[in-house]
Amino acid sequence: MITLYVFGPAFGLPDASPFVIKAEMLLKLSGLPYRKQPGSMRRAPKGKLPYLDDDGRRVPDSTLIRLYLAEQYGISLDAGLSETDKALAWSVECLCSDHLYWCVVHERWLDDATFARGPAQFFQRVPRLLRAPIMAMVRRKVRASLQAQGLGRFSPAERQRLLQLDVATLATLLGEQPYMLGAAPSWLDATVFAFLASAWLGTLGDTPSQQALRQHPNLQAYVERLRRQYFPDWTVPA
């Protein structure tokens, strides 16, 4: 059986990482049986989660997992899509994974109030005397990553403007359709749902990403519809 190695529930989400939610959504869309296990980044093939183990064959990275499902099982999750649709889907994939993701990282890790409600939970097992310096060290590394990526160099107003452009683009693409590319789900829905749900349904307070999503009822309805359809056990706090 396929085993998906994950971080685990956090912030009211089935997993702290949108990439893990995306990988699980891909497996749900595939119809293949699978199970989840807590993973270790030290043991992960690329030092990251999620990764998949298929009877001893380990596949890292949520996008490589999608490609593996297509190559190994013939499940491409893009039936009926034109080549133009596939190109558009890849562009939106990159928008979510390489831009929107970093907006969420910034608000979770570098805003003090959001950090206290969220990622600070990860350090509860660290001895009390070491907890504060270790948290500070990790946050410095996140800040350095955001500086290198570029988003960390913008002002809060500039970041919010870019975040709003990301979310508005997704809202325009979805329109009144049930899924991102029409009447049937595709692999793109695994990506978009994972990132939007992580932003909208997380119990981290009134974050910039929630403020951006609040302007687009169609995206809110999309997230709720797919949550009920594919993650019926995912309960949302009242």
Structure summarized in a few sentences:
The chain has 238 residues and is α+β, with helices and mostly antiparallel strands. It has helices at residues 18-30, 62-73, 83-110, 112-117, 128-149, 156-174, 187-200, 208-213, 217-230; strands at residues 2-6, 34-38, 51-54, 57-60.
Features:
238 residues, alpha+beta, Glutaredoxin, 4-stranded mixed β-sheet, 2 domains
The helix content is 55-70%
Oligomeric state of the chains in view: single chain
The number of helical segments is 9
SSE string, helices as H and strands as E: EHEEEHHHHHHHH
Summed over residues and divided by their number, the pLDDT gives a mean of 95
Question: What summary fits the major beta sheet?
Answer: 4 strands, mixed
In whole angstroms, how far apart are the ends? 36 Å
> Segments where pLDDT lies below 50 for 5+ residues?
none
Shape: globular
Which fold does the CATH topology of the largest domain refer to?
Answer: Glutathione S-transferase Yfyf (Class Pi), Chain A, domain 2
Strand order of the largest sheet: 2-1-3-4
**What's the alpha carbon Rg, rounded to whole Å?**
18 Å
Beta-strand content estimate: 5-15%
CATH architecture of the largest domain: Up-down Bundle
Topology (SSEs and partners):
Blueprint: E1 2-6, H1 18-30, E2 34-38, E3 51-54, E4 57-60, H2 62-73, H3 83-110, H4 112-117, H5 128-149, H6 156-174, H7 187-200, H8 208-213, H9 217-230
Parallel strand pairs: 1-2
Antiparallel strand pairs: 1-3, 3-4
Helix pairs in contact: 1-2, 1-7, 3-5, 3-6, 3-7, 7-9
What does this structure look like?
- This is Glutathione S-transferase.
- It comes from Aquitalea magnusonii.
- One of its GO terms (molecular function) is transferase activity.
- InterPro entries: FAX/IsoI-like, Glutathione-S-Trfase_C_sf, Glutathione_S-Trfase, Glutathione_S-Trfase_N, Metaxin_GST, Mito_Protein_Transport_Metaxin, Thioredoxin-like_fold, Thioredoxin-like_sf.
- By secondary structure, this protein is α+β, with helices and mostly antiparallel strands.
- It has two domains: 1-77, Glutaredoxin (3-Layer(aba) Sandwich); 81-231, Glutathione S-transferase Yfyf (Class Pi), Chain A, domain 2 (Up-down Bundle), CATH 1.20.1050.
- 56% of the residues lie in helices and 8% in strands.
- The protein contains nine helices and four strands; from the N terminus they run βαβββαααααααα.
- It has helices at residues 18-30, 62-73, 83-110, 112-117, 128-149, 156-174, 187-200, 208-213, 217-230; strands at 2-6, 34-38, 51-54, 57-60.
- A four-stranded mixed sheet has the order 2-1-3-4, covered by helices on one side.
- Helix 1 packs parallel to helix 2 (62-73), helix 1 (18-30) packs antiparallel against helix 7 (187-200) and helix 7 crosses helix 9 (217-230).
